[in-house]
Design goal:
InterPro entries: HATPase_C_sf, HATPase_dom, His_kinase_dom, HisK_dim/P_dom, HisK_dim/P_sf, Histidine_kinase_KdpD, KdpD_sf, KdpD_TM. Pfam families: DUF4118 (PF13493), HATPase_c (PF02518), HisKA (PF00512), KdpD (PF02702), Usp (PF00582). With 852 residues, the protein is an alpha/beta fold. The chain contains 25 helices and 24 strands. The protein has five domains: 217 residues, Rossmann fold, CATH 3.40.50.300; 116 residues, Rossmann fold (3-Layer(aba) Sandwich), CATH 3.40.50.620; 104 residues, no CATH class; 160 residues, Helix Hairpins; 144 residues, Heat Shock Protein 90, CATH 3.30.565.
């Protein structure tokens, strides 16, 4: 089934007549015999709108109850069953009542369109999602009901329903929009002339952009290459030089003279990437053009005039702004220049403005000493061969007659050797010197700088030309080799950098240190500030004495966005290095953002864990602590009551209940305090050496007698622990084991030495714990299985593991052979147990220290 078509009536504000226009369109279609129904239209009590509904079939609304009131929403299922050719759906951005088929009305419309039903709808400009902030800044009202821009842009037809602010306010005053009791408030607030004018401008500009998109699509579909001057579009050609700022400002002034003018700055980059403008200057110009409301573009092309004209015609530009050439007068022998070529080839439909500036005829500042890239030693050898080689060859050729042709080939070989070694300049010197020697020694008349035979003149000229050509080719190949090697090095650096950054292996300080090492700088720093006038702060640094106050104080600074810059000190970098440095700066900003996001995630995780602990703590306080308190309160109240004469046995029983409740409270509060200390990291164990058999028995005081079987040999090595923490850990483990052990089955507490560790095992014969839950039982506020609330707050095992880890030990859970659970507390042994002394003797302090 073909998808239905969507037609939207767009207005600047309520009351401009969108719904009226939609109903008028419906009447016209019905008169033409189209099956058209009203799926949903909001009249808002406006008489003229209600009159327009007469004669149109309306699909009954679906009634929904929400918060004690009944609302009518579009019945999508009924419309789909009716299957009309056209459905009218008012207020596209409306939010449906909870319980509807879809959350938003535009989603209902999407279902109708998917079913092949054409839809006519309405929407105001303030309901477009992308304009929410702009509308709020104009009207002071945040629109809660919005529709995605893409939904409106996909419409097959968009018609603007326009009305001047004065006419709209008159309609409001006449009561044609709102009820009379709301008119004064509306005219004084939302419907102020300034608000309506701004909203109208937004609507006109949005529709103009939509029309422009239609026009570009039409021109592309029909391959229209000529420029249609329907709107002033000014293209600014940038070279990366300082004159670009002047050109951008000049183009902006030209655009402001026409309605809806647009400025597009474009920089043409070489396709081989071997030449590039200053990244810093281009970044400044990009920021400038964007601040002035224009756009920045970078186009790849080797033929700058052709690429610039293709771009201008592609965007349907009407004017091109170029700067006067910076070339010196003698450089025009190589061609007319970009400006003259663009003006010549622009045609009658594209105006070209040549703007003067301060850099006219000052040259481009290109490096002249290209041979320096070959290395000092090669250049010296090149000059030596280029100057001494022809002289030595002339001396040798004077001893033998090989003919002028062979002599010229030999001199040409010397010129090629000079080019291979030293580049262009030594080769040119060799060709010139060799030509003079050929003329003086081997061309009649001999020993004179004249040539009698014209053929010899041609031969010497060809020799000099071939020498120059060979030298140029060799020099070009050497420079290209150098550039290719440099680009390969740059690509390897960037690839390594990007890989490390994406994998998260590089911190900001490590990245800045790599920047400093790569470019041989003394220091590197990433500076940022909150606003245009806010002071700069250092987000990260590397090296000694990095600039911390302003990026301008550094030898090299690369902007990253509007409020961040990479600053380096040590030396001034050439433009070729700045290209790679710009990539480093962008990656530094990414690393900083990732670090901050990670810190925020860690803080959020800590807060979430803290909230979970606090929630469980509140639950424990509200329930688990209340039970013993209630028991104590009841026992005390009973004892103090004068109405009952309690026997000694009853009094003893009540006092025993009070004591048990107090012990239980003491245990619960102790665990809560211990858990709080572990969570805040304030547990500081006092490690000392002690026997296990001295601590473990003390931990059994809180369990019933005959419930624990103890097997702790006295020959075990001493352990390095905090006795208090060890006692609390073992006490919690034993209490937990006794709680889950069957009646009549005792818990075994055994200790043994394994290598350099001492293990304390608490073995029960209870129900056991599955493997997948063995780690979870050590989390705070966890109870296994169907343990009742009164069994504790679920902190015992968490506190035991926390104390064990604080002492450098471990606590794990294992299955008990034959059923049950075994807790294994592994502790670090202090050393071998000292040999016992004969009765009546004791060691001195130095002997004890030496023994231990």
């Amino acid at each position: 089934m073909a998808r239905g078509k969507l037609r939207i009536y767009l207005g600047a504000a309520p009351g401009v007549g969108k719904t009226y226009a939609m109903l008028s369109e419906a009447h016209r279609r019905v008169e033409r015999g189209t099956d058209c129904v009203v799926a949903l239209v909001e009249s808002h009590g406006r008489p003229r709108t209600e009159v327009m509904l007469h004669g149109l079939e309306q699909v009954p609304r679906r009634q929904l109850e929400y918060r004690g009131a009944v609302f009518g929403e579009m019945d999508v299922e009924a419309v789909l069953r009716r299957a009309p050719a056209v459905a009218l759906v008012d207020e596209l951005a409306h939010t449906n009542i909870p319980g509807s088929r879809n959350t938003k009305r535009w989603q209902d419309v999407e279902e109708l369109l998917a079913a092949g039903i054409d839809v006519v709808s309405t929407v105001n400009i303030q309901h477009l999602e992308s304009l929410g902030d702009v509308v709020e800044s104009i009207t002071g009202v945040r629109q809660r009901e919005t529709v995605p821009d893409e939904v409106v842009r996909r419409a097959d037809d968009i018609e603007l329903v326009d009305m001047s602010p004065q006419a709209l306010r008159r309609r409001m005053a006449h009561g044609n929009i709102y009820q009379p009791d709301k008119v004064d408030a509306a005219l004084s607030n939302y419907f102020r002339p300034g608000n309506l004018t701004a909203l109208r401008e937004l609507a006109l500009l949005w529709v103009a952009d939509r029309v422009d998109a239609y026009l570009n699509a039409y021109r592309s579909e029909h391959r229209v290459s000529t420029i249609w001057g329907s709107r002033e579009r000014i293209v600014v050609g940038l070279t990366g030089g300082p004159e670009g700022r002047t050109l951008i400002r000049r183009a902006t002034r030209l655009a402001e003279k026409g309605a809806g003018g647009e400025v597009m700055a474009v920089y043409i980059a070489r396709s081989d990437g071997l030449s590039s403008a200053s990244p810093k200057e281009l970044a400044i110009q990009r920021t400038l053009v964007e601040d002035l409301g224009g756009t920045f573009h970078q186009v790849v092309g080797d033929d700058v005039p052709a690429a610039l004209l293709d771009f201008a015609r592609g965007v349907n530009a009407t004017q091109i702004v170029l700067g006067s050439s910076r070339r010196k007068a003698w450089q025009y022998v190589f061609g007319p220049g970009v400006g003259a070529t663009v003006a010549r080839d622009s045609g009658p439909d594209l105006d070209v403005h040549i703007v003067t500036h301060e850099e006219v005829a000052k040259g481009r500042g290109l490096p002249v000493a290209r041979g320096g890239r070959l290395g000092r030693a090669r250049i010296i050898w090149g000059w030596a061969v280029g100057l001494a080689g022809p002289a030595v060859l002339a001396v040798l050729l004077n001893t033998v007659d090989l003919g002028l042709a062979n002599d010229m080939l030999l001199f040409l070989a010397v010129t090629v050797a000079a080019a291979l070694l030293g580049g262009l300049l030594p080769a040119l010197a060799s060709a010139a010197f060799g030509s003079l020697l050929l003329n003086y020694f081997y061309t009649p008349p001999l020993h004179r700088l004249t040539v009698a035979d014209p053929k010899n003149i041609v031969a010497i000229a060809i020799f000099f030309g071939v020498g120059m050509a060979v030298a140029s080719v060799v020099d070009l190949a050497a420079r290209r080799t150098h550039q290719a090697a440099r680009l390969r090095a740059e690509s390897e650096i960037l690839s390594f950098l990007a890989g490390n950054v994406l994998r998260g292996e590089t911190s900001l300080e490590e990245l800045l240190e790599r920047v400093r090492e790569t470019f041989a700088m003394e220091s590197a720093a990433l500076l940022e500030r909150a606003g245009d006038v806010a002071p700069w702060t250092c987000a990260g640094r590397a090296g000694f004495g990095p600039p911390l106050e302003r990026p301008e104080d550094a030898d090299v600074d690369v902007p990253v966005g509007d409020h961040m810059a990479l600053a380096l000190s040590g030396r001034v970098l050439p433009a070729a290095d700045r290209r790679v440095l710009a990539a480093f700066a962008a990656q530094a900003a990414v690393v900083l953002d990732r670090r901050r996001l990670k810190e925020e995630a860690d803080r959020a995780r800590t807060l979430a864990e803290g909230n979970r602990i606090r929630t469980a703590l509140l639950a424990a306080v509200s329930h688990d602590l209340r039970t013993p308190l209630a028991g104590i309160k009841a026992a005390v109240s009973s004892l103090r009551s004068d109405d009952v004469a309690w026997s000694e046995e009853d009094q003893a029983e009540l006092l025993e209940g009070i004591e048990e409740g107090a012990d239980r409270l003491d245990h619960l509060v102790g665990n809560l305090l211990d858990m709080s200390r572990l969570q805040t990291g304030t547990v500081t164990p006092l490690i000392r050496e002690i026997d296990v058999d001295e601590v473990v028995p003390m931990a059994l005081g809180g369990v019933p007698e005959d419930s624990v079987e103890l097997d702790v040999p006295e020959t075990l090595p001493m352990v390095a622990v905090d006795p208090g923490l060890l006692e609390r850990s073992v006490a919690n483990l034993v209490e937990n084991a006794v709680k889950y052990s069957p009646h009549g089955r005792r818990v075994l507490v055994a200790a043994s030495a394994i290598a350099d560790r001492v293990e304390v095992r608490v073995v029960d014969r209870g129900p056991g714990v599955p493997d997948e839950a063995k780690d979870r039982i050590f989390e705070p506020f966890q109870r296994y299985g169907d343990a009742p609330r009164g069994a504790g707050v679920g902190l015992g095992l968490a506190v035991a593991r926390g104390f064990a880890e604080a002492m450098g030990g471990t606590l794990t859970a294992e299955d008990t052979p034959g059923g049950g659970l075994t807790m294994v507390l592994s502790l670090r042994a202090a050393g071998p147990r000292p040999e016992p002394l004969p009765a009546g003797e004791s060691r001195t302090e130095p002997e004890r220290q030496a023994t231990w």
